[in-house]
Structure formats: C-alpha cells, structure tokens
Amino acid sequence: MSSQYYKNAAIIYNPVAGQRNVRNGMQQTIGRLAFVGWRTALYETTIEIGAEELTRRAIAEGAEIVVAAGGDGTINAVINGMDVRQNPHVTLGVLPIGTANVWAREVGITSFPQLTGDFKSAADTLINGVPMLADLGQAGNRYFLLWAGIGLDALITQEVHFDLKRWAGGLAFAEAGVRTGLRYTGARVRVKLDDEVIENDTWFIAISNIRLYAHIPLAKNADITDGLLDVHLFAGNTPPQYLKHMAGVLLGTHTQDPDVVYRQCQQISIEADPALPVHVDAEPIGLTPMKFSVLPQSLRVLVPREFIEN
Ligand SMILES: [Mg+2]
User: Fold this and answer.
1) Which residues have beta carbons under 5 A from ligand 1 (an ion)?
2) In whole angstroms, what is the distance from residue 201 CA to residue 186 CA?
3) How far does the centroid of ligand 1 lie from the alpha carbon of residue 139, in Å?
4) Inter-residue contact 28 to 97 (CB < 8 Å)
5) Most buried among 20, 33, 269, 306, using CB within 10 Å?
C-alpha cells in the first residue's frame, strides 16, 4: 500500500515553545515532505494568533492535512480549529515536539526529533502514516482527543511548573499530584452516565478516549474507534483514599478497586458541589457543571500503520 499523498499541507508551529533548533527542523521537515510531493506551508503562532485560529486559516487556504508540530496542547488547539463537523475531509498529522507527547506515545510514534534532532525521520513518520477515523470527545463546546479530567487532575494540570515539567516529565505530575492532593478535599458529585445516575464524593473523574493517561495506561479497555468514552470515577474525600487511588493507578490495580466506578458510555453530565475544574488534553477549560459526549469516528488522523494493525 502506498502512503497518502497531500498536495496541500500546513504545519502549525509555535516558534517559542521549541527546545533547540526547532526552526531549522521545520525547514528540514518541509524539505523532506516536498521531496515526496507535499506542498507545505508553515504557520507560526504569535502572541496574537494561536494554533486554533491558524488552523482555521490554513483550512480556508486549502490545507488538506494540518500537522500539529508540538505537544498535546497544540494537538488540542488544532483539532478545535479543524471543526470536524464542517471539515470532515481534513486530516490531522502530528510532529511530536512538545513537552507532553501522550498522543504520539499512544499511537506508537517513535520519532521525537526534539530529542534526536532527526526531523527527517519525523517527516517520514508522516509520509508513511495511514489515515484512520478516530472518535473525538466533546466537553462543553471544546473537543478533545485524549481525555477530559474533572477535579484533582485539572488542579494538578494548573499546578505543574513549566520548567519542572520540561525536565522531569511524569515526575513533575506526581510531585504536583501529592502536593495538591494533600490539601484538596474533592466534591460531592452527581454524575449521569448515559441513563444511570451516580451520586458520590470524588477526588477526580477521568473521561478517556485513549488508553494512556499521562504515561499510565489508566483506561486499559479504551478503544478509540468504538464510539464510547471510558469513565473512571475515583470515590472518596480523604487523603488516605486519595493516596490509595494514586497508588492503584500507578500499579494498575485500580480496575479491581470497589471505590473506582468504571463505565463505558456516550453521554456524561457532571454537577459538583463545590464546582470542580475541568481540563481537556491538559488544557484548563472551566468548571462544572458540564456535559460530555463522543463524536464517533469523526476525526481523520494519520497514525503509524502498526497502530491500525494491532
Ligand atoms: Mg472509546
């Protein structure tokens, strides 16, 4: 099978977020794509114009594929700019050069040019990628590709210090998790999961479209094409319960814990007292109450062939 051919490609790129020589890397990438016939325009974000707005502009200017050059936050901005309801024909590509590249790890992308300087391999990953139709989540009026998090993890997302995140990755989240968790008391929630209503105290709720949560396979049964979101509600409101849940997730034993409610569903609504913060793909988007849903197989995205075959 030959790889996809895109006459008009756009790369969305934040020139200040990169670590080293990323600007040169962009030119190498564009050169490699040109070698196989992709005509690629580079869209650089500025203070005034972010990745979401640039994506809209790129599609209006004829882009058939929009490559998010960055991490999960850039991917989230691009999918929100893609507006799959209006532009179902546009494909998402990913060049993982962000601080958090969970999507790339989920689908088995192995080329991280920020670490190696090898942008040619990263371009080849795009060239050899195959398109799939992935489910997309919706939280309020925002789309997500990875997950929505409600409660503690949304607080942690706000707490992680950028420099620490850069150097320590997952450890920074663990550190922020412990520091934030020990002074956090959760909320009383009323959660509607399709037709089922659950009332409970909770530390956090994860609504997963993919298996990984940060670097941990939290939603082990998640399938990104089944039209269902995998929901984990971690019950409790005391620090010992919270620490038990943290350990359970890290050890993978949370799936047997009676204090973890697990469902697969299409529609979720969450009310909380006090209101809880919500993030999608690690980007804070507001507070509960909020509704969540899934758009089955609605996002065209390039992934390594092995991801589809497995
Ligand atoms: Mg699913």
Assistant:
1) 223, 226, 228
2) 7
3) 15
4) no
5) 33
- Is 0.85 surpassed by the pTM of this model? yes
pLDDT tens digit string along 223-271?
Answer: 999 999 999 999 998 888 888 988 898 889 999 999 999 999 999 999 9
**Assigned token pair, 210:** 């993919």
How many CA atoms does the CB half-sphere of 255 hold within 13 Å?
Answer: 9
Q: Is the separation of the CB atoms in 288 and 275 below 8 Å?
A: yes
User: Considering only CA atoms, which of 266, 89, 278 is closest in space to residue 193?
Assistant: 266
> Phi then psi for 111, rounded to 5 degrees?
-100, 110
| DSSP symbols for 84-133 | TTT-TTPEEEEEE-SS--HHHHHHT----HHHH--HHHHHHHHHT-EEEE
DSSP code string of 187-253: EEEEEEETTEEEEEEEEEEEEESSSEETTEE-STT--TTSS-EEEEEEE--SHHHHHHHHHHHHHT-
Domains of the chain, each with CATH number or no CATH: 8-128 (3.40.50.10330), 147-294 (2.60.200.40)
Summarised one tens digit per residue, pLDDT across range 182-191 is 667 789 999 9
Ligand 1 centroid to residue 226 C-alpha, Å: 5
- For residue 206 the two structure tokens come to 């994860």
* Contacting residues for 247 by C-beta, under 8 A, at least 6 apart: 253
